[in-house]
UniProtKB/TrEMBL annotation:
This is Iron ABC transporter permease. The chain crosses the membrane at residues 58-75, 87-106, 144-165, 196-216, 228-245, 274-296, 302-320. CDD domains: TM_ABC_iron-siderophores_like. Pfam families: FecCD (PF01032). It comes from the Bacteria. InterPro entries: ABC_transptr_permease_BtuC.
Length: 328
């Protein structure tokens, strides 16, 4: 019964976040005018703002939050480390660096950006898994995070260096560094959806074997699963999810840490229950952060990555300062 209440509460939270995203913004549109559009009325200008500007970034924000939340839960379970997070361990930074390099070389289409973003995420994810194989790193969450932070800093520095090479591409590259949902279009989501749907299919197929792998390789093998294949499928799913999310909104940190942490605190250690709760919590976090980014410095907007960092950093400190960091 308690789990059912948690599911209902999180979906209500997502609904309220979506409603706030459509009603509030950095422009001059009043609350009553925005609400009139949602009831089928409103002026043509108000309808344009709500349906053509706010609605696309709302749906893209939902896709981004869902992808990063699920990717974080998968990565934490795979590495058996509650601090594993795409933004902290270099996966998002690898994706952003690949996109920055592609922009410098002249790439511009949304499809090409998505593909390159996923290749960069795949490389970053591979380095994360390799780091867990280093003696002591996989068992020490803090050491793994320090290694990931080093990789992230290096890749972001290289991305910043690319901005100095070509001023023409500097503004586009800066998007991938700070993260934003402003000005997003439906065609960008359409270009990313095939890979996100493929990742979703992989997650559905790997959830049960991954839950067995969390109990140990011998247990998973005894149940007829192949640990090597499970890891490979999880890496591919994480790369597709993080690459797609980065292509849509840039390299956002801490989302993949906060969302699984909250979901696990509500559902327990079972990865299947955690994934179900990540579905509403991830989008709710991104949408709420995006709404705040529009309201804090009106009529301008703050970078979305700054808001997610402000939300996620205290959660990271709480986990690190715990007397005992739980193993997954």
């Amino acid at each position: 019964m308690k789990t059912y209440r948690n599911y209902v509460a999180t979906w209500v939270m997502l609904f309220l976040a979506c409603l706030a995203s459509l009603l509030f913004g950095a422009g001059t549109l009043e609350l009553g005018q925005a609400f009139a559009v949602l009831t089928g009325q409103g002026t043509e200008d108000a309808r344009f703002v709500v349906m053509e500007l706010r609605l696309p970034r709302l749906v893209i924000g939902m896709a981004t939050g869902l992808a990063l939340g699920v990717a974080g839960a998968l990565l934490q379970t795979l590495t058996r480390n509650p601090l594993a997070e795409p933004g902290l361990l270099g996966v998002s930074a690898g994706s952003a660096f690949a996109v920055s390099l592609a922009i410098l070389l002249g790439a511009s289409t949304a499809t090409l950006t998505t593909l390159i973003s996923q290749v960069g995420a795949l490389a970053g994810c591979g380095l994360v898994v390799a780091a867990t194989r280093i003696q002591g790193a996989g068992q020490d969450p803090v050491r793994l995070v320090l290694a990931g932070a080093t990789l992230t800093g290096l890749l972001l520095s290289l991305s910043s260096l690319l901005m100095l090479i070509d001023q023409r591409a500097a503004d586009e590259i800066r998007f991938w560094i700070t993260g934003s949902l402003a000005g997003k279009r439906w065609d960008q989501l359409t270009a990313t959806m095939p890979s996100l749907l493929l990742a979703g299919a992989i997650v559905v197929g790997v959830a049960r074997p991954l839950a067995s792998l969390a109990l140990g390789e011998k247990v998973a093998m005894g149940l007829g699963h192949k640990p090597g294949l499970i890891r490979l499928m999880v890496i591919v799913a994480v790369a597709l999810l993080v690459g797609g999310a980065t292509a849509l909104a840039g390299p956002l940190v801490f989302v993949g840490l906060v969302v699984p942490f909250v979901a696990r605190s509500l559902a327990g250690a079972d990865i299947r229950k955690t994934l179900w709760l990540c579905l509403p919590i991830g989008p709710a976090m991104i949408i709420a952060a995006d709404t705040l980014s529009r309201l804090l410095v009106t009529p301008s907007e703050m970078p979305l990555g700054v808001i997610t960092a402000v939300i996620g950093a205290p959660v990271l400190m709480v986990i690190i300062r715990a007397r005992r960091i739980p193993a997954l």
